[in-house]
Structure formats: structure tokens, C-alpha cells
Amino acid sequence: MTEANETDGARGSTPMLSIRGVTTGYGKIQILHGVDLTVQRGQIAALLGGNGTGKSTLLKALSGLLPVWDGVVEFDGEPIHQLRPDQIVRRGLVQVTQGKDAYPAMTVEENLKLGAFTRSDRKGVADDLERVFTFFPRLKERRNQLSATLSGGEVQMLVIGRGLMARPKMIMLDEPSAALAPKVVLSIFATVNQIRATGVSVLMVEQNVRMALLLAEYAYIIRDGKILIKGEARDLIKDPNVKLSFLGGTVADTSREIVA
Amino acid sequence: MDFDFSSLFAFILFGLTIGVVYGIVALGISLIYSGLDIVHFAHGEIYMFGAFFGLVFSEQVGVPYPLALLSAMICAGVLGIVIERVFYRRLTRAGGGYTVAGMGMIICGFGMSVVLQNIAFLIWGADAEPFHVDLGEPYQFGDISLPKSYALTAVMALFLMAALHFFLVRTKLGLAVRAVAHNKDIAFLMGINVPLMISLIFGLACALAAAAGTLIGPMQSVQVEMGYLMLMKAFAAAVVGGFGSLPGAIVGGLLVGIFENLGAAYISPSHKDIYAFLLLILVLMIKPSGLFGVEARVKA
Ligand SMILES: Nc1ncnc2c1ncn2[C@@H]1O[C@H](COP(=O)(O)OP(=O)(O)OP(=O)(O)O)[C@@H](O)[C@H]1O
Ligand SMILES: [Mg+2]
After folding, report:
1. Would B220 be classed as within a structural domain?
2. In the A/B pair of chains, how many CB contacts fall below 8 A?
3. B219 assigned to some structural domain
4. Is the residue at B140 inside a domain?
């Protein structure tokens, strides 16, 4: 098993996100039992695991929505595990939740503007709005529509776009491809690839293991609140243990195209 | 016998005036409900405090009436924020954030209402205080004379509603308030300081109640027990309009105001206060979620 992600951080001195020994849970029920994980700058890291293994719980803890009981979360070289969620967003760490939680009673454009709530540079916000519209032209057509009227795929585009509107240093995506048609899944993955190209680091939770491993540089596999396997994505994709636990070959190999 | 249309018109006009005041109190109750998930039973007492603040500023400090109104709104807003921070927030936090904290929150609201009433009693006593505002001769519409305080009340209340609407729909902060009202976790992830926004919502709602108190003061009088009846009417208004709906609160207020004035005029004036509830029962029989209510509102 390679340890490359911890030792030779290829692109920067400090990693973008570094967490050590994080434990948390709901009320008295502990879900995470000491999670270590690192995301290098400009990297896509994948967090994989079955249902109920604590992936979303980890993201909530990183965002500050759940208190970190123990352990350290360092973002961009500084500890953030005691900050409020809005302060963490202001530092540049943004989460797109699993629930496709757009505000249904607001228009597409209002949702996107809300994503830029922390910013006061009007010009930059306007530019980023256009950038999101080039990523997702369908959102532009529907900009004045209530988001309650969008399809599932469009809502997913909207919440990713809304996350980008904060101009984050790093974005955490919780199962962006869940419950979407294969074609939409491809376009979402292609967008994640483009997001990385703009220099934003990505932590992506996925059930679509094969696609995630094709796209990501590094991957963590979580089980029962602990990191079970970690390593370079290209190694894990051949790893028989990983294959055993996950790879079902659900998505056609054409998905390789988008990473090429 | 000829039907007297001009007095019908007068009753409707007076009904509308008092109705907009019910509307702004109901607006506050709905705002708190949609923003904090609590049904605020002490809102009538905030209204009463607001009326006293207005009276104090107008009669004892001696500032002009519009300034007294504004000062009363600010004081009640601050009072509300303190109450929410010191008392309610502990309870809502114990219930796992701002989810419906159930019975505890309701009892806390009733308790707060009793406490506030007694504090007001200690400060101002039990007597009804007249609130003199000299605005000059009443307006004349044919046979009807409309005191200027009524006209001012209607105009101010409409202005406050329009200002709130503009704030919620057109400003970035208003957008954030709506976001917090709908889903607090997602609002947090938008970088919104949710606890601060909750204070703002509560303070705004209390300021609206104080405006209502200061506007009603000159028409009736100011008295420590005035909050109870207003709470009942404003609740009726909020439920008639659809609980949690802001446009519904305003329409509900107008309907309650008109309905009770017509009832008092054509049925029996001695039962003036029950017509609001008669209307409530009628509306709930026809549309249980209220006029503007959404069936089974799901909140995250
Ligand atoms: N609000 C909550 N209160 C109590 N327990 C919770 C809560 N949310 C999640 N859990 C529990 O925590 C565990 C981990 O949940 P989590 O949502 O992190 O799983 P996940 O890995 O994201 O799964 P999925 O792939 O299904 O989204 C589960 O056993 C779940 O039942
Ligand atoms: Mg999950």
C-alpha cells in the first residue's frame, strides 16, 4: 500500500486538507472512530464506502455541522475543527451535500447568488455566475425558474454550481452522481474534472466506485467509521480487495473517455 | 328600508385599518414560526411593551410621534433579541437545534408572557394609559369622518409590510433570512452566520409587534393586559392566512379586521371579539391549511 499522499506532497508544502484521528457522532452514538485523511492541493481525492459507513458524517464534521469530538482538522495549514460552519466556508472549504438541497422556493439565480453570500466582489460574482452557466448551460436557460421545478440532474448541477459560487479553495461533493441517468453522471464527472483544472481541490464521496477511481488521484475506503484501505487510485482500481468489496462494473468502460 | 352603503363603507374602512395592524403582528408570528420553528406565545406581550415604549417616548421623552414609533420598534427589537438569546435559545438547542422543540417551547412562551406582563405591571401599573397624539382634524369622506390616527396607522402598516417584502425579496440579507427559514444546515454551508440571522429574524418580528402597539395606542389606550387579545386575533389572522405564510398573515389580518367590524355592526357589538374566531372556524372548515397555506409543509 503506497503512502504517497502523506509523504511526498507533490504540489505544495502543506496539504490542502489534513485530518488526523477525527471522531464524531450523533448524540452519544459514535460513528467515526479516528479517521485520518489527506487531500493534496489541486487533487481529486475519492472517499468510497458502502451505505451507512460514515462518509456523509465525515463531511458534516469537516464542514462544522457536527462537532469534532476528538482529533484535528487542518485546512490550508490552519486548524478549523472548532470553527462555525460559516467561518469554515469563509476559509474556502465548501460542501455540496448529498440531499441535492437546493432552495425550492428560490429561483436558480437566487440559489446561485446565495452560494456567493460570503463575497462582496460584485464583479467577481458576476464572472463566476457566467462561469457556472458555461459549465451548466441548462441552468442559464432556467435561471429565473423556481428550483422546485428542476429535474434531479439539473438540481445536482445547481448545487454544484452554487458551491462553486463561493469561489472555494476546496469543494467536498457528497455523491454527486447518485440517482442520475448515466449520461448526466458522465457530465457531472466531466465537470468535476474541469473544477480540478481550475485549481480547486476536490474531496468526492462516491458509490460509483469505478468512475471515481478513474477520475481521482487518491482514494480512501471507509468502513464502520474507519479508513480501511487507502492508496493511489490507479493502484486501487487493480486491487483485488477493492474489487471484492465494490467493483461491480456497473458503468461501461466508456467512462474512461472523460478522464483521458 | 334603504341599505346604508356609506356606513357599510365606513365599517369596512375601519376594519381594514385595524386589520393591517393585526396583519403586522401576525406577520411577526409567522416570521418567527418559519424562521425559528417556534410558535411564540409571548408575542402579545412584546406588542404591549412596544405600545408602552411608544407611549414613554412620545409623552415622557417628548419626541415626535414617528420618532417614538421608530424608537419603540428598536427597543422592542432589542428586548426580543435578548429574550431569544438568553431564554429560548437554550431550549431550542436542547431540542437539537432549531427543530420543533415541542411542548417545552410552548410552555416557555406562556411563561415568558406571564413574566413580561408582571414586569410591565411593576413598571406602569394596571391602569389604562391614554396615548394622546394630536394629528389634527379627521379626514372627511362624505358622511364618514376618519380620524387621522387611523389613516396614519393604515399607511404606516402598509409601509412596514412593503419594506419587509422589499427586504426579503430584494436584498442579499433578506435572501439569507429566507435561506435560514427554510433549512439551517444548508444556510450554514452557504457561509451564512445562522445564529446571528436568527437573532435578526426574532428582533424584526418583535419590532413589527412594537410598531403595531404604538399604532394602536392612540386609537385605544395602553394597558398591561392588552397583549392577550391581540395575540388571539393575530393568531387567528395567521392561521386564516396559512400559518408561516407571510402574504397569508397580511390577508388574514385584513379579513379578521373587516369581519369583526362587520359582525359588530350588523350582528351584535357586544360580541366583537368572537368574530375573529368565527372566521377562523369557517376558513378551517373550508381549507384546513389556511388560505395561503401549503398542505403538510415539510421542513428540513
Ligand atoms: N442525524 C443522525 N442522527 C443519528 N444517526 C445518524 C444521523 N445521520 C446519520 N446517522 C447514522 O450514522 C451512520 C453513518 O451515516 P452516514 O450518513 O455518514 O452514512 P454514509 O456513509 O454517508 O451512507 P450513504 O452512502 O448511505 O449516504 C449511519 O448508521 C446512520 O444511521
Ligand atoms: Mg451519505
Report:
1. yes
2. 64
3. yes
4. no
What is residue B133's predicted lDDT score, i.e. its pLDDT? 78
* Nearest residue on chain B to A88, alpha-carbon basis: B191
What confidence tens digit (pLDDT) does each residue in A203-239 have? 999 988 888 999 999 999 998 899 988 988 888 888 7
CA-to-CA dists, residue B186 to A1, A172, B168, B192, B210, angstroms: 37, 14, 18, 9, 32
* Residues B287/B37, Cβ–Cβ less than 8 Å: no
pLDDT for residue A256: 44
- Is the CB of residue A24 less than 8 Å from the CB of residue A67? yes
Q: Which domain holds residue B252?
A: 5-126+148-286
**How many residues in chain A?**
260
Give me the amino acid identity at B297.
R
In a domain, B296, yes or no: no
Between the CA of A206 and the centroid of ligand 2 the distance, in Å, is: 9
Question: Residues near B23 by Cβ (< 8 Å), separated by ≥ 6?
Answer: B157, B161, B237, B249, B250, B251, B252, B253, B254, B257
State the greatest distance between any 2 C-alpha atoms of chain A, in Å, as a whole number: 51
Would residue B244 be called left, alpha or beta, if left means φ above 0 and alpha means ψ between -120 and 50 degrees?
Answer: left
Which one, of A42, A37, A43, A40, lies nearest residue A14 by Cα? A40
Q: Which amino acid is at A237?
A: I
Do residue A85 and residue B188 have CB atoms under 8 angstroms apart?
yes
* Residues of chain A contacting residue B190, judged by C-beta atoms under 8 Å apart: 86, 89, 114-115, 117-118, 162, 166
**Distance from C-alpha of B177 to C-alpha of B184, rounded to nearest angstrom:** 10
Spell out which residues line ligand 1, taking CB within 6 angstroms.
Answer: A 26, 29, 31, 49, 51-57, 98
Contacts of B64 (CB under 8 A, 6+ apart): none
In this structure, the residue with its CA closest to atom 3 of ligand 1 is A26
pLDDT single digits (tens) A100-142:
899 998 999 999 999 999 999 999 999 999 999 999 999 999 9
Of A66, A84, A86, which to mutate for an interface test with B (greatest number of B Cβ within 10 Å)? Answer: A86
- The stretch A3-23 carries a mean pLDDT of 71
**CB distance B178–A106 less than 8 Å?**
yes
Give CATH for domain A2-92+168-258.
Answer: 3.40.50.300
The count of residues in chain B is: 300
Decide: helix, strand or coil at residue B141. Answer: strand
Q: What is the mean pLDDT of chain B?
A: 86
pLDDT tens digits for B266-299? 888 887 888 888 888 888 888 888 888 765 444 3
Number of domains chain B is built from: 1
Q: How far apart are CA B21 and CA B32, in angstroms?
A: 17
- Cα A54 to ligand 1 centre (Å): 6
Three-class DSSP category at A229: strand
Are residues B176 and A86, on separate chains, in Cβ contact within 8 Å? no
> Model-level pTM?
0.85
Q: In the predicted model, what is the mean pLDDT of residues B239-257?
A: 89
